[in-house]
UniProtKB/TrEMBL annotation:
This is Reticulon. Residues 25-212 form the Reticulon domain. It holds the Pfam family Reticulon. One of its GO terms (cellular component) is neuron projection. It comes from Cyprinus carpio carpio. Keywords: Endoplasmic reticulum, Membrane, Transmembrane, Transmembrane helix. It comes from the Eukaryota. PANTHER family: RETICULON, RETICULON-LIKE PROTEIN. It is a multi-pass membrane protein. The keyword Transmembrane applies. GO terms for biological process: brain development; endoplasmic reticulum tubular network formation; neuron differentiation.
Length: 212
């Protein structure tokens, strides 16, 4: 009984953690706090642009050296300051060193179960598409892959990643500001796409979806 209660408590904590994490991500993407969003956006762009000029190993090493230089300098500065002022404030990073960072067995199991669920779902969807369980969906997937070949020829992976990051931090704000106009155009596009798909389904044998 006690174990069941503890498991339910951990599950509730995990759900609360993910909910809180999603809220924080949405606040960043919608620029609710300009300083935080600007810092995260600038840091991501700096990292990605650095990767276009240097190898991953070099970028990681430089970042580690920068972080160590900052913490070591601050540690030495506080030690000298305490010696001069004859105070005993202790380690300057004591509060951070005492923060619990380990994951419990239940948390690790929860992460593993989530990862297993997404991997299995992805494999099942890929099997469905490649083995043409639904002809229309497989054709859509083929068109998407064909478009990606052109994107791959125009941009490398890092350039596409930079474009994704810029879009993530710009499109939500634009959509929030011009939601009515964007929804109107998206509805028109969806109507045209559905019309084309319907015509394809009528002309290709076996492409018509089964009635639900």
């Amino acid at each position: 009984m006690q174990a069941s209660t503890m498991a339910a408590t951990d599950s509730t904590k995990m759900e609360g953690f993910w909910s809180n994490w999603k809220c924080q991500v949405m606040e960043l993407l919608y620029w609710r706090n300009l300083k935080q969003s600007g810092f995260v956006f600038g840091s991501l762009l700096l990292l990605l642009f650095s990767l276009t000029q240097f190898s991953v190993v070099s970028v990681v090493a430089y970042l580690a050296l920068a972080a160590l230089s900052t913490t070591i300098s601050f540690r030495v500065y506080k030690s000298v300051l305490q010696a001069v002022q004859k105070t005993d404030e202790g380690h300057p990073f004591k509060a951070y060193l005492e923060v619990e960072m380990s994951l419990s067995h239940d948390q690790m199991q929860k992460y593993a179960e989530n990862a297993q669920y997404y991997i299995n779902s992805t494999l099942k969807e890929l099997r469905r598409l490649f083995l043409v369980q639904d002809l229309v969906d497989s054709l859509k997937f083929a068109v998407l892959m064909w478009l990606l070949t052109y994107l791959g020829a125009l941009f490398n992976g890092l350039t596409l990643l930079i474009m994704v990051v810029v879009s993530m931090f710009s499109m939500p704000v634009v959509y929030e500001k011009y939601q009515a106009q964007i929804d109107q155009y998206l509805a028109l596009i969806r109507t045209q796409v559905n019309s084309v798909v319907g015509k394809i389904q009528e002309k290709i044998p076996g492409a018509k979806r089964k009635a639900e």
